[in-house]
Backbone:
């Protein structure tokens, strides 16, 4: 199992270096701005893109056909991909938090538990994205899963922009809801865990019935 996960990280090692450079550059840009959370969301989306790149390599080199000759079951191949995505998101989240908290310290801003909780929302949204993208990739291929990723992130963003433009009062009412950021994070990660479990089951089912 660890060998399968390590294989993906060896494939994307240059991409991870690129991500590191871009994150540092963006961190420098947003240090002088008031956007405290853009970087964490940006890195979360980049992490999903990196995960898709591992799937692209697998598809291009027909990894699944080769893996079928190994003494590894298909469910293990899927589970290894999911576990690799969790490790990737953990690394990305820690790095993003380090950059963001450093930027806040540089600007002289104080941070609290609620600040950290708010930054933790981005990785959860990214993991929900993988719960959509991975089954689509196993069922329809990487290119169509990229379209699924675009729809997942693009449609809510468009709806948010339209809501801010035409229904600003709706967000004013949301401010009256008494819920702390850490409570939102706990709820969001609970939903994420359920979606990840369902997504993994679907991916395993698809992989088991797939002709390689």
Residues:
């Amino acid at each position: 199992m660890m060998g399968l996960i390590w294989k993906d990280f060896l494939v994307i090692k240059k991409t991870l270096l690129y991500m590191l450079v871009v994150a540092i550059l963006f961190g420098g840009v947003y240090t002088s701005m008031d956007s405290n959370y853009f970087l964490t969301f940006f890195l979360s989306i980049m992490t999903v893109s990196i995960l898709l790149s591992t799937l692209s390599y697998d598809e291009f080199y027909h990894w699944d056909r080769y893996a079928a000759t190994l003494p590894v079951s298909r469910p293990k191949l899927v589970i290894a991909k999911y576990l690799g995505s969790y490790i990737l998101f953990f690394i990305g989240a820690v790095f993003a938090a380090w950059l963001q908290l450093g930027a806040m310290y540089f600007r002289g801003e104080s941070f609290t538990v609620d600040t950290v909780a708010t930054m933790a929302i981005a990785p959860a949204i990214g993991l929900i994205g993988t719960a959509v993208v991975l089954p689509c990739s196993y069922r329809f291929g990487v290119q169509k899963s990229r379209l699924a990723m675009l729809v997942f992130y693009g449609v809510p963003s468009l709806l948010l922009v339209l809501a801010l433009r035409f229904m600003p009062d709706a967000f004013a009412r949301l401010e009256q809801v008494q819920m702390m950021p850490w409570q939102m994070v706990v709820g969001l990660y609970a939903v994420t865990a359920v979606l990840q479990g369902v997504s993994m089951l679907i991916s395993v089912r698809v992989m088991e019935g797939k002709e390689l």
